[in-house]
Structures are given as C-alpha cells and as structure tokens.
Task: structure prediction
Amino acid sequence: MAYVLGYWWADGMMRIKTNTGAHEIRMASNDLDHLEQLANSIGTKYHLRKVSQNSETFTVEFCSKEMYIDLLALGGTPRKSRTIGMPDVPDEYLSDFVRGVIDGDGTVGWNGDRPIVHLYSGSTLFLGGFTQRIESLTGIPAPNLIANRNNYYIKWSTIRARCLAMWLYRNNNGLMLARKAAIAQQFEQWQPKKSPERGTITEKMRLHFANYLP
Result:
C-alpha cells in the first residue's frame, strides 16, 4: 500500500462533494492496465473511466469516508499541491512509496547519454522532506530544489540516478510502472565516460550500491 500512497501523493486528489457529501479519492494515469492494478490492490469498490472521449487519460475514483480519513491522518489534504508535506513512511516501505511518487508524477529517462530521475511538485515542503528521507536511508545526496515557473523540481543524474533507480526498481516484486522499470533496467548497463567528481559518491552509497558504482 505504500506504493499506492506514493502514487496518490504525487498526483491524486481528495474532496467531499458539496452536493452529496460523498468522500471521493481519485488518481489518474494514461496507463489503463496500471491504474486497474492500483485499484485492485486497494481491494474496495471503484469507478474507472476516461477523462473525456478524446483524452488518453483515465481516472479511478473511490467513494470512501474511511480512506478519506486515513489520508487526512497521514497528512493528505484537498487542494494539496502547494501545501502537502512528506508523510511518515517506515524505512522498510520507503522505496515502495518513492517508486509510487516517481511512477505517479516523475521521470525516469535519459539526458543525452546520462541517466536522470526527476520530479516536479508545487510543494517545497514535500520535496525537501522527500529527498532528505532518501538521503538518510540510501546515502544518495539530496539534490537542490530548482524553481520552474509555479513549481519546483529535483533531479538526480548519472551515478546518483543509477543508484536511485536500482533501489526503486531492481529485484522488486511490488507494483511498478512497466515502462519506467524498463528504462531503469537500461541504467544498470550504463557506465560513466569519466570518473565521477570527488564527493559524488558517498560512503553510504558504497555500502548500499557497491555493484553499481565504478
């Protein structure tokens, strides 16, 4: 469920309908099969539909007061995009949560011949807590927050992106977006053209990712 929470944290919404008082939780994706997997993993009734006739995006909606209250207790809110923080996720589930966030609203890809992982958010509070938790557990240093119009983004690249992707997608049997997992697998074969600059690789990274470091 940590993966589903991360996916919702990145790109979901919650609201109480003014006309009925129903408690609604919603997630969206262009990948229908993956959205169905998410919905089925929750194990409660849901409604799956296309956003519009000409859209490639699907949404899954749950009507559940219990789920709504659970999300509130974890720090979720309506209109959360600029105010949400980092939830208290136990260390043993952090990689699942982070993978859910990246699959929900992040990028796993290439900048030329360099692997990158990046994420946009309107909340500096969330991005700061998110990167700090990853650094604390894996040793991968927290990247700087970069302003981009009305949002902010963080980016890991080269060796750090490779290690992050291995932590999220390698030897993991949990939920994941297949196309991002496939790119992460490509990262495993990548080798830097020159030795990383001093300080790029931390001692904690060497403990966790020895097989993926030059």
